[in-house]
User: Fold DnaJ domain-containing protein from Aminithiophilus ramosus.
Amino acid sequence: MIPCELESRFRLLGIAPQSDWDQVKSAFRRLARTCHPDVAGPESSARFAEINEAYMDIKGFLLSGKTPQGPLRPSPPHGTSRPRTGKGQRRKEAEPAREKTRQRRLDEALDEATRRVEALLRKSAERKREDLSGHLERLRSAHPAVVLLALEGLAARVGEEAVRRALVDLLCRPSLEREVLDRVIDLVGPANREIMVLLSRRVLSIDADVALRLVRSLRGLADRAGLLTPWLSHRSEKVVAEALAQWPLSAPPPDDLSLSRLLRRNEEALLIPLLRLLHRCGAPAWAVFSLKKLAVDHPAAAVRVWARSVVSQGDLG
Assistant:
């Protein structure tokens, strides 16, 4: 039985409601040959749109049992077109909803990425704390190999307060393996004054090559006189000579105890920079006897010349 809604569609095609599918197709083709805009002109567009709509409704019913909802849409006035109801129009109408969905998904993705990054940072921080704790624990070991392993692990973290305190504790031990001490010197450098002071207290236990490298590294410090003073008691004449050569121009000469100890030494390589320093800064009056003795008895002519120059410049004679 043909629904009432379809009877008007059949009449529009000029066929009876009881017509079969072949009759419907024939009627539509016949009308298309006469009413299509390409044949009848643009003014037939509205008429052909109604015919096409009726044909599609009948086709839907006969082939799939779909019943059209409501009557045929009225034709628009001549010269106008029906509102767009195709895919383009539906896509345009759905665009705000799609944009909102895209934005929501983007926000969710960003939130998820942020959570993952924060989780990775937390894990990294926890891992670093665990690594630091392990290295500091190994640094307290009595075995030099274990301590060296810990120092390697702390090489990139020397500036951290916990590491600095641990290195200070390490340097305050009664005895240190030379290899460990050398590695600490390599790591610390002259920038950390507290550690440098602790190192200077262990002058006699530091190898000459390491001590020489450390003294030379102090060259850039303006107030280095206090850090250089302990190195004046090193057993190596090269280290002492380098410390004297690095003595700041604006600083007073070394203290009396250091001067007395140095004037009793006999190495030419050490005495020349010492006498140059005294010539620049001035020698104390108590040193006249030692200076005159050097000016007369020392086997090196350069030492004798510099000693006489210091005595005469300071009017110590």
Remarks:
- The chain is about 65% helix and 0% strand.
- The longest helix spans residues 87-139.
- The radius of gyration is 51 Å.
